[in-house]
Design brief:
Blueprint: E1 5-9, E2 12-18, H1 24-35, H2 39-47, E3 64-68, E4 74-81, E5 90-96, H3 106-120, E6 125-130, H4 135-140, E7 144-151, E8 154-162, H5 163-172
Antiparallel strand pairs: 1-2, 2-3, 3-4, 4-5, 6-8, 7-8
Length: about 170
Amino acid sequence: MHHRIDATVRDVQVVIRDGRPEEAAELEALQRRASLVWDDQRDALLEHPDAISVPASLFDVGDVRVATDPDGRTVGFSVVLPSADDAAPELDGLFVEPALQGGRGIGRALVDDAAQVATGRGRSALWVIANPNALAFYEKVGFVVTGEVATRFGPGLRMRLDLVRSHAQRQAR
C-alpha cells in the first residue's frame, strides 16, 4: 500500500491515505454531491445514477486515495487506474466536497498525491479525461489538453500531466 501524506494547503490541513472498501458508499455520495454542482450535467447524472460508482476492487491495490481533515472527515478522494498496456496511469476520479472546492488546495493535493503514486510506479505521465467544466483546474495543476474524447455524457478532454516536469516544478517551489 501507499504511505500517508500530511499536508497543509491554504490553511486547510488534510491527510491523504489509502481508501478502505467500507468507505465506498460514503465516497460515492461525495462523488454524487461534487458531480451535481455542474448544471449542464445534473439531469444526465440524475437519470443515470449507475454512472457514480467506486467498485470494491479498486481498493485492493491502493488505487483509491482519500483526503481527510484533522477530525477525520472525508473532504475528497481520487482514483488512479493502472493502464492496461503498462503505460501512464489514468486519474479516473477526483472529487472534493462542494463546500470546500475553489482555491483551498484540496484538489491540488490529491493531484500531487496521484502524481507521487504514479511516479512511485515508475511512470512519467498521468492521464485524465476531464469534464470541460474542470478544464481550468486541470490546466492550473499542470495538465495539458491533448485531444477530445467521447464520454457517456458528452465530450471530454484528454489531458496529460508530465510527471518529470511536474516534479521539477514542485521541487522549485
